[in-house]
Amino acid sequence: DAVEYGLDAPFDVEFHDSIPSTNARARDLADEGRADVAVLADEQTGGRGRLDREWSSPSGGVWLSVLVRPDVPPARVPAFTLAAAVAVARAAREAGVDARIKWPNDVVVPGEDAQGDEIERKLSGILTEMEGEADRVSWVIVGMGINANVDPDDLPSEARPATLSAEAGTVDRRLFTQRVLEEFDELRGDPESVIPAWREYATTLGKRVRVDTPGGEVVGDAVDIEFPGTLVVDTGDERVTVAAGDCEHLR
Ligand code: BT5
Fold first, then answer.
1. DSSP string spanning 136-155?
2. pLDDT, tens digit (0-9, with 9 covering 90-100), for 184-240
3. pLDDT value, residue 114
4. What CATH number should be reported for the domain whose range is 208-249?
5. CATH code for residues 3-201
6. Cys bridge to 149: 60, 156, 209, 228, which one at CB 3.0-4.6 A?
7. Which of 187, 77, 82 lies closest to 132, judged by CA?
8. For the chain, what are the domain ranges?
9. Ligand 1 atom 34: the closest Cα is on which residue?
10. pLDDT tens digits, residue range 103-147?
11. Whose CA is nearest to atom 35 of ligand 1?
């Protein structure tokens, strides 16, 4: 059952001890005509990633969805994913974690695997959903899954997870969530300011990447990111812009 969380945040916040998915709950609130609501849960029993993947959501995390109704066309929506990534990365940095952003929707922490090779461990993933017409969205839901006070052993090891508590000690989830919501609110009011902030934290730029896009695979050097969130890849022959996809860092 939802209770008020009493956050001093620029959104109404409803809190659930356990819920299937905060994104699904936010979707119900969208259907009820609500706006500027955040849904927060301690545990999710049916958390989802992109492409219907599972998102492991044990108790102790910050499983958070924000419902907004911006006056923008669907093509601008990726900026909200980037804004969420920047907001999470900033809050994690304030908590003492070396958070970076991997295009398009991961917040990662550098680490090493058993062989001592550099790897990126996933601290947070973002699932953005929307509905609307070609010229204007009706709503956008930005779901942020943040491994806060979670034991990495309770998360799928093949995902190479990172958690705030393992990196920097137990966090005050109320304050952490408040900081995420404040940062997100500020960035959504000034969407173009997302790009420089994103570049500052980016781990993807300068890397060789393979991106699986709806239109096929793109391999090359990630050279830049442009508003509203397009990755620019230099394939050697040409510069390709990629709006969305799964991105693998090759080196
Ligand atoms: C994402 O998908 O990264 C988006 C995750 C969004 C979760 C939030 S939680 C609040 C809201 N409510 C929801 O139901 N969802 C949102 P994707 O890029 O597809 O990554 C999914 C992959 O990450 C999985 O296939 C696993 O490999 C890995 N994974 C699953 N759980 C993880 C976790 N807790 N930490 C790190 N990696 C995880």
1. -EEEEEEEEEE--S--GGGS
2. 999 999 988 999 999 999 999 999 999 999 889 999 999 999 999 999 999 999 999
3. 86
4. 2.30.30
5. 3.30.930.10
6. 60
7. 77
8. 3-201, 208-249
9. 56
10. 999 999 999 988 998 899 999 999 999 999 999 999 999 999 999
11. 161
